[in-house]
Amino acid sequence: MRKKYMNPYLAGVLLGLVLLSAMFFSGRGLGASGGLKYAVVAAVETVDHQHAMESPYYSKYFEDGKNPLKSWLALEVLGMLLGGFISGAISGRLKLKIEKSPKISNSKRLLFAFLGGVFFVYGAQLARGCTSGAALSGMAVLSVAGFMTMIGIFGSAFLFAWFFRKLWI
Amino acid sequence: MNARIKISALLVGVGLILAFLPFNAAKSFQLKPTELLEISTNTDMYFSVDEVARFVNNEDTTIQLIDLRSAAEFMESNIPGSINIPFSDLLNPSWEGYLDQDKVKNVYYANGDETANLVWAIVSGLGYSNSFVMKGGMNEWYKTVMLSKFEGDRITPRENALFENRYKARRTFTQINSLPDSLKKQYLEAKRLEESQLDGGCE
Amino acid sequence: MGPITILNDLPEWLNLGIGFFIGIGFGFALEQAGFSSSRKLAGMFYGYDTTVLKVFFTAAIVALAGSQLLSYFGLLDLNLVYVNPYYVTATLVGGVIMGAGFIMGGFCPGTGISALSIGKIDALFFLVGGLSGAFLFAETFPLIQTLAGANYKGPVRVDEWLGVSPGVFTFLLIVAAITMFWLAELAEKKYARNDITSEI
Question: Is the pTM above the cut of 0.90?
């Protein structure tokens, strides 16, 4: 039986408490795009070790015998998959499906989802964090970068919304 | 609608309370005055300028020199490898990563001894270990390392080593400080940004 | 006193384990909020569903207020909590690129992961795109290195920037958030659409 979503304010309090415990236990905020980056860094190292060691970008993740997959963020992202799954199971929302506006085709939705992912994570690497790592966690520690990232993401999404309205409404 | 107004009022109330709370109350003097007095009475807190000259010559990475003078004085001349934390800016949280750590020895200096000793007392009171003072400050550095000459008939091996150490530090000091301002700024900036102090974000 | 792992020199595995558990909470909260649905998320930008705004600001306020209270009672040293560094150019350019990605893909990385965990195939494509984006960034890094590092300001806090105390700023943020919540609920009425809950 599908349950309704939690009241947004209540869900916000829950999310805030999770963020607060990350700050309290580990002295840091939440993150998501960083976990994706670590996966890529580890994959590149496996495929082409020499390239990873020579590149100024990849090599910094292997300094002093570090392993990008054995990092706080990588584990946190794994936990997210489990947490989301538990929540979906409790609320009866586990289902393989493509979610889209009925006016567009599946392939169009998947193409734009892919493109959106490319853009989003590219931007997140540049800004050193995404909605979770930079905007939300940044705001919680009063970081100027956090507020600016939030304004950047939501401001530009509102601006671009008109061009992509056919995807959603 | 009623519940919403109640919750809003509650939130604003919390905000008002926060507005009157001191920030970072958790940071306070951690040593009792008696303990502070006890560690102040030992003289291990000093490094001589000759010792500092040796650190400079060896590019000793276990030592961090911290210049407490103003930014202008620091740009004018500083001991190679120093970072500048002006006295008035000491408690700015962005320096905390440098001051409160257990990896390197922080050696403070200003023109004379007063400022450096005061800073030493403050940071030690905060419970930061690894704090030291360069005895005599920049005045002593100029007098001993930069200007002293050997005067006498015969030089002993010990004095020879001492003066070689001073000459070498003198050369490095002059070289770095005669760089044009823009280059010096770049060099110092690069040094300051070398590493972020805490782990976090999506980096 | 916190942050626990920093002040107590805990073993590495325990720190990672804490990360894993916090991740579980994070994924759970996102899914419960409805962030596993791209159409709910995109609703933010067309006014028909403002869940994003409500959850986002409520969470930020709870964490902000909570951390300051913990600090006041001596339970958390805020100087040891990571503050994101501010690279002016990179933050703004990156933010705009992310906004474009958001409106195209309908997810952000965190919500994408949460959606994948309940079986959304579009989220899988979004995340594969995300991995490609991270790879693209790594490979093009030498080209944009200058941009990425330009105008570095260090980990500045907004209260220092504006010259007010953190508490006063939090108060202002709470007032702003309540105003936005109120506007958001008005917008939801104005731009209301047929219930899409059955479709998502």
Answer: no
